């Protein structure tokens, strides 16, 4: 049986390698950009409510803030208690062109000691979970100039 790569959340990103992009939506009336995507109505309370179109987001941004996750989250969050907990860095990245901040995990091997506010990072494909049949994919933020 072939191993299938499947997005953990459909419609939030597309592509592989250099073509990897987060996907958001933009309102045609007020130009507000949303991530996660909005498919029903514009969330801008001052907008006359235009239609929404899918847009690829900037691949690079600057760290707005960051922290680390050092403990296993409590219920109702899902984590396998049979596996050891591995701390990870969580990064809030400002996408200047879109005027939004997008959260995401740091790429494997990147810790809070490697990060500074204002540092340039790029969205790269990542793995959330793998089982015998499926690799569930997500996005990670990686400092630019760091090899995969």
TrEMBL record:
Domain ChsH2 rubredoxin-like zinc ribbon positions: 21-53
InterPro entries reported in the protein's UniProt record: ChsH2_Znr (IPR022002), NA-bd_OB-fold (IPR012340), Thioester_dehydratase-like (IPR052513)
SUPFAM superfamilies given in the database record: Nucleic acid-binding proteins
Name the UniProt record assigns to this protein: Putative OB-fold protein
């Amino acid at each position: 049986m072939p191993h299938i790569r499947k997005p953990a959340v459909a419609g939030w990103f597309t592509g592989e390698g250099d073509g990897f992009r987060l996907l958001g939506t933009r309102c045609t009336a007020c130009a507000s950009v949303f991530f996660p995507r909005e498919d029903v109505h514009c969330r801008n309370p001052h907008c006359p409510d235009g239609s929404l179109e899918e847009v690829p987001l900037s691949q690079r941004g600057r760290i707005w803030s960051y922290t680390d996750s050092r403990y296993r989250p409590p219920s109702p969050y899902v984590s396998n208690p049979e596996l050891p907990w591995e701390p990870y860095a969580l990064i809030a990245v400002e996408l200047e062109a879109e005027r939004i901040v997008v959260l995401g995990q740091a790429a494997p091997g990147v810790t809070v000691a490697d990060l500074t506010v204002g540092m340039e990072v790029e969205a790269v494909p990542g793995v959330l979970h793998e089982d015998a049949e499926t690799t569930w994919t997500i996005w990670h933020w990686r400092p630019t100039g760091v090899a995969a």
